[in-house]
Amino acid sequence: MENRDITDNLKELSTALSKTDDPDLILEFLECLLTRNEMSEVASRWALVKMLDQGTSQRNIASQLGLSLCKITRGSKELQKTESAFKKMIDTV
Fold it and tell me: What is the mean pLDDT of residues 60-73?
């Protein structure tokens, strides 16, 4: 799939998700869309972002979630950006 197609499809998916306020429907949809491994990856990345936001050390996160320091550092850099999408999403829950 071309980059433009990826972006277009993700925008459409984002729009669809933003139009429902039913967390159970979104969860059911994600369970249909993603494999078990993909769900685990997404859940781990969300957990690491929340842990970083709470001030948990990268080494502690690596130990608890079994993630590489490289993946955690990437999450940390994204969280520290001005207007961070990670931070905005954390603030919604």
Answer: 95
